Amino acid sequence: MSEYQYYEFQAFDRPLTEEEQQAVARLSSRVDPHPRRAVFTYSFGGGLRRSAEDLLAEYYDAMLYLANWGSRQLVFRFPKSLVDLEQMQQYNVVTVDYPSEAVNVYTKGGYAILDIQLHEEEGLGWIEGEGWLDSLVGLRDAILRQDYRLLYLAWLKGVALAYDVEKDALEPPVPPGLGSLTAALDSFVELFDVDADLLQVAAERSAKPVQTASKDDLNQAIAQLPPEEKDAFLLRLAQGEPHLSLALNRRLGALRGVPQPDMAQRRTVSELFVDAETLRERKRKEQAAQAEARRIRELEALAKREAQTWEEVEALIQQSKAKAYDEAVQLLLKLRDLAIYQGQEMVFQQRLNRIYEQYSRRSALLRRLRDAGLCQSQT
User: Fold this and answer.
1) In a domain, 143, yes or no
2) Is residue 46 part of a domain?
3) Do the beta carbons of residue 266 and residue 174 sit within 8 Å?
């Protein structure tokens, strides 16, 4: 399999200037200048001429990197004043001997950078990067609204991948709404292959999504704003400040007293793993029970037409064709299962012996019978 690397960058808060577009275009002859997007694809080796993280921090607000040897990286840039670094850094993965890079939140200039990168030794196989970032960009706005479900999912995947994860470390705050993911979060779960059972266990402690503030709630909070603060918000609105509604709603939320996640019920990493394995075992038992119920229904249906099925076996053998022999063997296997279910193994074996005796010269048929484990009794 050839190597494949895919980089995609997108800008949301402001378009790149002409000069900035030309600077990005100089990194590769295959990139056309664009004010809001750049894509770099490499096969058979090669790579960006400068750090992808630096390129994002200088020009863009989102970056996705995929490599078919097992690397996936999603990076978002935020205005530093609009995010709570302390809250976001609670989702770093704790390992015994070294800090994990699964979730890394840091600052660069006037920006906060969220860097999610996961590496799996088995590789990703065939993968195409086109379209994935478009399905994920809504996660940036969610974090700006202090919806940290992405961070928790990345932490969950990180602890599942970490070689030497600290098993006694507590999980970070469980954000509300893990049991009802958005389309963007579903895309992240799919692309980053988040374990479904771990996610289901984690969601058991997740509250329902926080309801949007009503008009009356907002009016009451706005009434509490000092006049000079209202004027300041109006001035910032007139100047076209990006994300001003987020800043205002966060301020109004503080005045309304928006509830914070419950920290009392945090589990250890080990407890999550044990609960997930318990869930997997329960699912395996349920699936086995369902399969057994289906098998019994099929056997009971076969019992009603057992005589007819033996006649079908005889008719197929009479055709003396390879495909017909294969079909006859499959029917005999079902009849054997029925005999075991009914406690009539000896009767079945007697009828099978008669087939061996009657068609003793049909080597192709006899070989198929023996290969299927339908052996002639020696008694």
Assistant:
1) yes
2) yes
3) yes
Task: For residue 40, give the amino acid letter.
Answer: F
Asked if residue 277 is part of any domain, the answer here is no
Give the chain's mean pLDDT: 87
Query: 223: domain range?
Result: 215-254
125 and 241 co-located in one domain: no
Q: How many domains does the chain have?
A: 3
The residue with tokens 């863009």 is: 60
What's residue 76's pLDDT? 96
The predicted-structure confidence for 83-111, as pLDDT tens digits, reads as follows 989 999 899 876 655 445 688 899 998 89
| Residues ≥6 apart with Cβ < 8 Å to 269 | 159, 165, 166, 167, 168, 169, 170, 171
Average pLDDT of the segment spanning 163-191: 89
**pLDDT per residue over 74-83, tens digit each?**
999 999 988 9
Pair 223, 77 in one domain? no
* Residues 143 and 130: beta-carbon distance below 8 Å: no
Contact between 210 and 178 under an 8 Å Cβ cutoff? The reply is no
List the Cα angle 92/97/101 in 5-degree steps: 35
**How far apart, in whole angstroms, are the C-alpha atoms of residue 101 and residue 134?**
24
Domain match, 361 and 229 both: no
Residue 219 placed within a domain: yes
- Per-residue pLDDT, averaged over 140-155, amounts to 93
